[in-house]
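User: As part of a screening pipeline, I want to sanity-check one entry by hand. Below is the sequence and the SMILES for flavin mononucleotide. Please return the complex as structure tokens so I can compare it with the automated output.
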Amino acid sequence: MKLNINKETCTGCKLCETVCIRDNIIVVDKKAVEVDNGDCFDCGHCLAICPSNSISLKGFDGQKDRVGEYNPKEIPVSSEDYLNLLKQRRSIRWFKKKKIDKETFNKLFEAAYYSPSAQNAQDVEFVVLDNELDEFMHLVYDIISAEEDKFFRIKQFGEYLRGEGDYKNHPLLWEGHQMILAFSRNSANALIASTRLELFAYTMGLGGFYSLFTLKADELDHDRLMEFFPGIDSHKHMYSAFVIGYPRVKYRRTVPHKGIDVYYR
Ligand SMILES: Cc1cc2nc3c(=O)[nH]c(=O)nc-3n(C[C@H](O)[C@H](O)[C@H](O)COP(=O)(O)O)c2cc1C
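Assistant: Here is the complex for your manual check:
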């Protein structure tokens, strides 16, 4: 059994029964009763919808502080503000030297923490690379140099690392010196969590860009890459690499976009 149901306060309104997609709750004699189908996946919709706050999830007792009460009639951000945030977001590659501290990172992870995930797996693991970023990028190069002939950027990266050529910026990191990686068994889980974190970062005066070439390391030699992260389940893949920092440039206007293809059928 996964739920604690307070029979005293339950009014038998049936909302929990309606929202449970696993049919794990039925209302009998005006009281919610848990049915043990063995497949409750802790989504918490029953406790989130309960008007009398009569349900709690077992095993999450230490996380009561994460349960917040909301007015279900109010949306906390106006659609206009949110659309403006989406429109104003620009990839940032030019950063101040100031580093993001742990407290600020933790706020970003709070934004990612509430992301949906397939089967409610909540399996995304993040790594913040700071002191070890340089070492990590050397490993990335060792792996992706296999495709040096295909991509001029990888060739430049090699030259930069060997001190050859006259590079103003790091060909992969530009002025970045901190990076957030997201690992998951499911690419969608990692990407959804990462984009939430990314957008929230902009509300905190931060910015960054996704680094495709870093992800290539996972594509080309997953096992070797994962040796760098012994604490992470090696069945997970690195699906997002976001270079992040305090922007040293500020953009003033939106730029033209090609338009989005939508088919209503
Ligand atoms: C999946 C993905 C990979 C990207 N990889 C890189 C990259 O390796 N290096 C880089 O400088 N920018 C990278 N970007 C940023 C894009 O180049 C950027 O979105 C594009 O220049 C448009 O600018 P905007 O994001 O400001 O609209 C990537 C973006 C995405 C979504």
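Points to compare against the pipeline: The chain has a mean pLDDT of 96. The chain has two domains: 3-66, 79-245.
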